Amino acid sequence: MTESGEKQEPKVDYTKAPVVLAANHVSKHFKLPTEQATGLKQAFINWTKGIKGYRQQQVLKDISFEVHQGEFFGIVGRNGGGKSTLLKIISQIYYPNQGSISVKGKLVPFIELGVGFNPELTGRENVYLNGSLLGFTAEEVDAMYDDIVSFAELEDFMDQKLKNYSSGMQVRLAFSVAIKAQGDILVLDEVLAVGDEAFQRKCDEFFTEIKKDANKTVILVTHDMDSVRKYCSRAMMIADGEVEAIGDPETVSQQYTLANLNAEEAVEQQKREERGGYPNGLNERCPILRTYAISPRICKSSDTFRFAVEYQYDEPDDFYIAIALHDIRRGGISYDTGMKTFKMKDHGHHVAVFDIPLNIFNNGEFRLIASLRIPNPNDDQQTDAVGVAVDENACTFVIQDERNRNYALLSDRALTMTQVDDSIINI
């Protein structure tokens, strides 16, 4: 049982199952043109000068891993890391420059929605066309056809031309062909958010069921860490064409989240360097003000998040530190300490440490923004901001807890609604 009282699925040791897909020291590069020879003469001149006319981009570097039968295997990584290239090699769309991929069983790739569909053909004809492209015979497609159409909920439209379908109908049909095809290994690239809400619920039920089938193997590339934690038995993170981490989905998803946070901070730092002078929000009176994490930046609701505010204020006036908690995913300010809550005693360059309990929050991504404030000369209840710690000087952290939901800000432990007895009023 989990802490929330839900029944926890027993963990399966997939290492005892046979290996159905293995990548052995796979490397892949592409040649990107740098200059174009306009004729034989220019091509000869370039050759004599040693100008190749292209540069080599190394996309994958010595990738090795194994996937066992029955696994739901996740592949994550930031854009440009090599995930989609790896999937295309697995699907035999690309071939590696070095190394090899071995597959045991029927592999059904679903790399891009609607690839292979012909808008001039009917929905029925497109199902058979896609089936043949995936390597199925007409008889095999016959056996799968009813399941495909039923899942897509398009029984009344299969004899209409695809060009008359809405975009949502086309997505449902393409996705249904992929997941209902009777393959042994299903390869999916960023497709868990297809269709409307009702269709997504149906897909969720499908993936929950397919996890229980010991003969079906799924390889999923996604940026959605909730899906990785929910569905995957193992996960792998690729960064700069190399395997950065492989193993427990929770650990891998946390490493991916940290990589995103670090990348965002690097972008903000670059912007600061390009601007020159004081960071955004700061000035000569308040040249230093930044908020940074002391605790790990990926937390559970049971944690207390500890952070620090570094500041420099040399003027003799009274001054305060105010802190606002911003909800990045949902938007808005979740909490604000108030303008005069923390009166600082020490002028000059110092660090103040703060704690924030997280037990009332659901999962999410949050940002702490500090401001240094002085009393307003005209209103003793107000303060004026001298500096604000924004961009790279703000502190971002993430709450990930299996007890929580992702939608609302407050957890069920913080707030529950109850129906009052005899509360139905007849009018």
TrEMBL record:
Stored SMART domains: AAA
InterPro entries for the chain: AAA+_ATPase, ABC_transporter-like_ATP-bd, ABC_transporter-like_CS, ABC_transpr_TagH-like, Bact_Polysacc_Export_ATP-bd, P-loop_NTPase
Key words of the record: ATP-binding, Nucleotide-binding, Transport
GO cellular component, one term: membrane
A Pfam family it matches: ABC_tran
PROSITE patterns referenced in this protein's UniProt entry, alphabetically: ABC_TRANSPORTER_1 (PS00211), ABC_TRANSPORTER_2 (PS50893)
Domain ABC transporter residues, every copy: 40-265
Gene Ontology terms, MF aspect: ABC-type transporter activity; ATP binding; ATP hydrolysis activity
Family: Belongs to the ABC transporter superfamily.
Name of the protein: Protein possibly involved in ATP-driven polysaccharide export
Species in which this protein is naturally found: Bifidobacterium longum (strain NCC 2705)
Phylogenetic classification of the source organism: Bacteria, Bacillati, Actinomycetota, Actinomycetes, Bifidobacteriales
Gene designation: rgpDc
